[in-house]
Amino acid sequence: MTWEPERLDDQALLREGDPGGMLPAVASSAAQVRTAHRSAVEAGISRLAGFGRPRAIVVAGMGASSVAGDILNVVCGPGSPLPIVTVRGYRLPGWVGAADLVIAVSHSGETEETLEVAAQAVRRGSSLLAVGTAGSPLEAIARQASALFVPVTSGGQPRANLWALAIPLVAAAAELGLTQAGPDLYENVAKSLEDIAHRCRPSSESFINPGKTLAMELAESVPMIWGSSPLAAVAAHRLADQLHENAKYPAIWGELPEAAHNQVVALDGPLAERDIFADTASRTLRLVMMRDTEEHPQVARRREVSARMAADRGVPVTELVAEGAQPLERLASLIVLGDYASVYLALGYGIDPTPVSAITELKARISP
Predict the structure, then answer these.
(1) Phi, psi (rounded to 5 degrees) for 252
(2) Residue of 117, 164, 168 whose CA lies nearest to 138
(3) What span, in angstroms and rounded, lies between the C-alpha atoms of 6 and 362?
(4) Distance CA 196, CA 188 (A)
(5) Predicted local confidence at residue 368, as pLDDT
(6) Residue 360: which H helix or E strand, with range?
(7) What is the pLDDT of residue 188?
(8) Which residues does residue 289 pair with via DSSP β-bridges, in sequence order?
(9) Which of 104, 72, 99 is nearest to 89 (CA)?
(10) Buried-exposed string 105-141: b where 16+ CB fall within 10 A, e elsewhere
(11) CA distance 354 to 358
(12) How many CB atoms are closer than 10 A to CB 324?
């Protein structure tokens, strides 16, 4: 597979290379925000306020569903009066019980790990909120337990429907008094996503399209993606995952200041070396800084110094700065840009971004 950046400005090639419609799916992010908020309200999310505040919230999910839990955590922020934990697996922590709220999230409603955790929550007497496709096994578990269920109406790949999964969780947190999120916030987020979708539209040429520009910077490199705050780290994690699934491309991610205690040493390693006499370009390291407007002063200092160290060693640096005032706005601005870049990177390599054949094969090999 050869990187051909000229593909990104060829409208016919973009359409032919994306038969599953991943680009339009990313462009639907604003609609997802509005629809998911409406679905949560119609499902009776306000009932949560009458249950009282739980001791803790545990979000169970895999893939994009687990990222929804991370989004909930950073939107509530470090001032949250209760812990918010994301479980990516088959087992609830041993301490989870009747005083806790378990939120089971699965776009299909059929994810085996999430179904197992939801069933455990019911057996332990925990409160349960489920988010997934109507008529699914997850809805059946929720209905049998007389629990709240919010239907997901968006189709397509789960990873392209992140906001359909995350917004009901934010709405739930608002009902519990863990964050402030009213109709104005959701509309501001949706408008921000629409603005980025306009800037990243396929007909916008590479030199002014931020999604295509980021894809071109990532191409033929090994991205090391750092977030400068817990919020930006969620976006860094999401970008790495999207590069894996959409572009079938390797990436690593980290969060400052922790990444400055380990990953920074890669700046002195073999992937940071550039042979200017080589006949062909080699894939070398690129540092991608995802910056939040709310950084700890010492983290900001580590970020600045790390970027200078990379530049001193000839390692290229990309900096992406969150836009917006509220945490959900800032996070959305970083995530959707990365989503576009991952799709454009796939298309620049001539890769269909929708199929995930390796995941399908893995599931088939482990199925009974």
Answers:
(1) -125, 155
(2) 117
(3) 34
(4) 13
(5) 76
(6) helix 357-366
(7) 97
(8) 226, 319
(9) 104
(10) bbbebebebbbbbbbbbbeeebbbbbbbbeebbbbeb
(11) 12
(12) 16
Whether pTM > 0.90 for this model: the answer is: yes
User: What is the C-alpha to C-alpha distance for residues 138 and 226, in angstroms, rounded to an integer?
Assistant: 34
**Any idea what the Cα angle at residue 186 is, between residues 231 and 182, rounded to 5°?**
100
C-alpha–C-alpha distance, residues 246 and 356, integer Å: 8
| Upper half-sphere CA count for residue 178 (Cβ side, 13 Å) | 27
Check if the beta carbon of residue 5 is closer than 8 Å to that of residue 14.
no
Q: How far is CA 160 from the centre of its chain?
A: 9
Spell out, as residue ranges, where the chain has pLDDT lower than 70.
Answer: 275-282
Q: How far is CA 171 from CA 25, 49, 179, 364, in A?
A: 23, 11, 9, 36
User: What domains sit in the chain, N to C, each tagged with a CATH number?
Assistant: 5-20+203-348 (3.40.50.10490), 28-188 (3.40.50.10490)
- 82-109 per-position pLDDT tens digit: 999 999 999 999 999 999 999 999 999 9
